[in-house]
Amino acid sequence: MQNHSTHALCALLLTACAFERAEQGTASYPSAGLYTPASTLGASDPTDTPQPGAGLGNRCVPLPPVDPAAAITTGTLALEFVTATMKGRYAPRNCTAAWIETTAGQYVATIEISAGLRRPALVYWQDHACTEKPGPDVVTSATVANHDKPHEALWNGVDFEGKPVADGPYKLFIEMTETDKDPGEFVTFDFMKTATAYGMELAVPFEGPLESARIDWAPMPEGSAGGPTAGQ
Length: 232
Prior knowledge:
Elements: H1 2-23, E1 71-72, E2 75-83, E3 95-102, E4 107-115, H2 123-128, E5 139-142, E6 151-155, E7 168-177, E8 185-193, E9 198-201, E10 210-219, E11 229-230
């Protein structure tokens, strides 16, 4: 009787071990992270893929209607930045995203994504953005091979639905990651959408994900088509 019980237990343990090995095969990993499953660089861990809006709720909520008395200046924000290595798992290859939020933390629009199919590696952008509707001004490209080439993006002062937003303060977010195993890093900058033109070098953190960053805001001349108007 004892021998039969021992054999049955061993058979059960062997079956469980075989099932566990099958579950952990490369076919069980989704296309997440910087590189595809079963590639020579290895498979991504599915537990690293965040759920959109996991911490901030629904990020696809439209902005409130603009106050009729508020100014809406038509113009263009030009962003240029150079990334810096954080010595991540796949350095110097990297993914980046740049997006805009209100000072209250509501998502406005994404203006740059360099990630291709590796967008799940941008864990902060995944949580902060409306990933289904990044925005009409978004510039997209594949994963970047190194940190040498400057990133350039434009924002025409509209939200992810293409609606002009009111003048005032906003926040610019830039995220960079070289890994799909740990979150990368992001930095934020305050800027103004205004009727006055300006340009400035942004103060990037020491030993952060950026080497340099600059923005230039250029409003359309008053009186020209699409110039400064009152709220709509």
